[in-house]
Amino acid sequence: MFLFPVCSPFLTSPSCLSVFPPPEMKGKNPWNTPTTIIITVIGIIAIVALVTVAVLQNRHLPQKYKYGIVLDAGSSHTSVYIYKLCQIYTVGISSYASAPWKAGESLRACMQDVEQQVPKKRHRQTPLYLGATAGMRLLKYNSSMSDGVLQAVEEALQKFPFSYQGARILSGQEEGAFGWVTVNYLDDRLSQVCGLETTGALDLGGASTQISFVSDKYNGSESPSNSVNFRLYGNDYNLYTHSFLCYGKDQALLMTQSVPEMLNDPCFNPGYTAIKNYSKIYDSPCLSGWKPQKIPTHFTHNGTGNFQQCQRIVKSIFNFTHCKYSQCSFNGIFQPSLQGQFGAFSAYYFVMSFLNLTDTTMPLEAVKAKLAHYCSTPWNQIKQQHPEVNEKYLAGYCFSGTYILTLLMEGYNFTSEEYSNIKFIKKIKDSDAGWTLGYMLNLTNMIPAEAPDSPLLPYSGYVSLVTIMAILLFILFILCLCPLWTRCSKQPEIV
Ligand SMILES: O=c1[nH]cnc2c1ncn2[C@@H]1O[C@H](COP(=O)(O)OP(=O)(O)O)[C@@H](O)[C@H]1O
Ligand SMILES: [Ca+2]
């Protein structure tokens, strides 16, 4: 705080008089006496200092360029996010249950790449997390091998020069809630004034699928396990979220293939044929108890490419009958009425963008007609049209597209009108939509519970205020010197 000599043309306090030059200076030009010059210089320095401090105080500190690394260990892949994706192999760490050390090994190449991408001087301050999702939830459900896999992953990650924060299996609720945080954080729907409607999050993985949204009609009392409360930037959010384990698209496919007569498959293109191992189907925890007594080890999987028949088979893995709540989505799970816009990401996007069906303003009947045409296209023609696409994905697009429409329309009860409220998204403002960013923001407390102190004035307001103050102060100084000076130069009359 800068103290100014308190003197003013309106103040004739003795203190002011005594400050100024003594009588012997009478009649001389008051402006070039050393005292006046010193006072003026001090005043100007004070004003300049004030302006400098004010500008520095309000200068936006350059955002410290921070890194954070989160590994998304999904059921089918592990991705490394340092604000951009470094895809590792298309095999989830849960696939290494029988050889856990391979899980750690599978991360090495990409983590070495990450080590190059994060500036060396920031390695120690860069937090490193690994979050595992449904693939590991299923492994944990099925066996104790998940601990061995996490341990091997932990040993591998601790060898890197980052600030290792741990590897853990996320709950389905966390995966759904953090996906919602990411979508709304990137879409700037959290730090605004309260009342801005948030966007729902739809995440489709290989082993699970999540739905999360805020519903004005849902206060969490009905089915509390589906309720997550957030306080972000001073706003309270009561989020509805549910994660359907086994309803990721890969596990859903296995469940449709368990249907006994499933040798000729309408969800695969005509002419598609492959020899498959039944154990791959019945080893999944999602099908435990479904294994028929007598089955051959292998079966021939033939495609017949019929969308309507495929829809019927896909619907058979959903239970729409029992619901003990006021309303349900499927399998007896409570779901409040849908509300607002939704961002659908991960496999929702991979599938619908391949099928050119990301335009949700397209009438639903037209979407179904396009998908039916794709499903009925002969497999050889599909392979010729898409030589660059991994056949593992290419063979599954008819099923996956049909599964997505069934999940959204019959599962979550989107009406044909509400379908246009869904946006199939991969990125928002150059960041991938997914749970990882929300997870890291939460763990690094980068989203404050309370609103940051909103500046009374915008930055420019501060500068102009300070400048005006400085000019006024300077004028004040000049005015102060003159009348006092005049008055001071006269001998005080002794009465
Ligand atoms: O390019 C692609 N085309 C089609 N599907 C893809 C592509 N890339 C990834 N996927 C699928 O997206 C899903 C990603 O699932 P993820 O590995 O996140 O599992 P999780 O979230 O269930 O743990 C998997 O079904 C995977 O096959
Ligand atoms: Ca996932």
Automatic annotation (TrEMBL):
Keyword Transmembrane helix on entry: yes
UniProt: ATP binding residues: 206-210
GO cellular component terms, semicolon-separated: caveola
Enzyme Commission number: 3.6.1.5
Origin superkingdom: Eukaryota
Keywords: ATP-binding, Calcium, Disulfide bond, Glycoprotein, Hydrolase, Magnesium, Membrane, Nucleotide-binding, Transmembrane, Transmembrane helix
Main location: membrane
Catalytic activity: UDP + H2O = UMP + phosphate + H(+); a ribonucleoside 5'-triphosphate + H2O = a ribonucleoside 5'-diphosphate + phosphate + H(+); CDP + H2O = CMP + phosphate + H(+); ITP + H2O = IDP + phosphate + H(+)
Membrane topology: Multi-pass membrane protein
Function summary: Catalyzes the hydrolysis of both di- and triphosphate nucleotides (NDPs and NTPs) and hydrolyze NTPs to nucleotide monophosphates (NMPs) in two distinct successive phosphate-releasing steps, with NDPs as intermediates and participates in the regulation of extracellular levels of nucleotides. By hydrolyzing proinflammatory ATP and platelet-activating ADP to AMP, it blocks platelet aggregation and supports blood flow.
Subunit-level organization: Homodimer; disulfide-linked.
Family per record: Belongs to the GDA1/CD39 NTPase family.
Name of the featured protein: Ectonucleoside triphosphate diphosphohydrolase 1
Phylogenetic classification of the source organism: Eukaryota, Metazoa, Chordata, Craniata, Vertebrata
